[in-house]
Amino acid sequence: MHETQPQDIPTHLAVIMDGNGRWARSRGLLRIEGHRNGVNAVRRTIEGAAEIGIQYLTLFSFSSENWRRPEEEVGELMNLLRRYLKSEIADLHAKGIRFRVIGDRARLSKDIVRLVEEAESTTAENTGMTLVLALSYGGRHDIAEAARKLATSVSLGLIRADAIDETVFAAHLGTAGIPDPDLLIRTSGERRISNFLLWECAYTEFVFLDKFWPDFGKEDLQQAVDEYGKRERRYGATAGTR
Is residue 35 annotated as involved in ligand binding? Predict the structure, then answer.
């Protein structure tokens, strides 16, 4: 049996929470019931990640492409988000968890943006795990926005074009100040990252699970972390340099 060592625990875990709709359909329920049950899996994952010692947990909660879903479903998802922000932040704050949102806030309703800003402000000084919600988020959009910001800075003479390197570019992404994910988990059996953290996942380890998101629990999380701990991350170097 693999014995977990401190270096075997990912600093940053990212999760694509997939399969809510199929979970509901397999039970003859409406899709929204899958999303509602998915919130329970979110709670379990946050609690489990904190117990394991993960420092950053990023959850892909709503993608830029999800806006294309039927208006009724999008509305239900936004209502779920409102309820989550109103009911869960106090508990996260009490546990010392810092809350942060990445994504295009311009497409969100004003009341949700206000709730997000209040949650971020309330938990800003917390020193426990950082919970990041990727909301109205798309990796390509985030990269394009970073390029636009840098182009503007160059045109204004604030930075030289030849001074732009990977570090400078990364500082203009929505994830600025957050380490790249060490491990990404995707549920539901899909084997792709779906425009999620494209820049940041350059050397991320992937674990794909067949289980639908509402059924994901602490044991699944621990098994994925154990699998991560068995891998040797070489970053292009030779074996034995981890």
Answer: yes
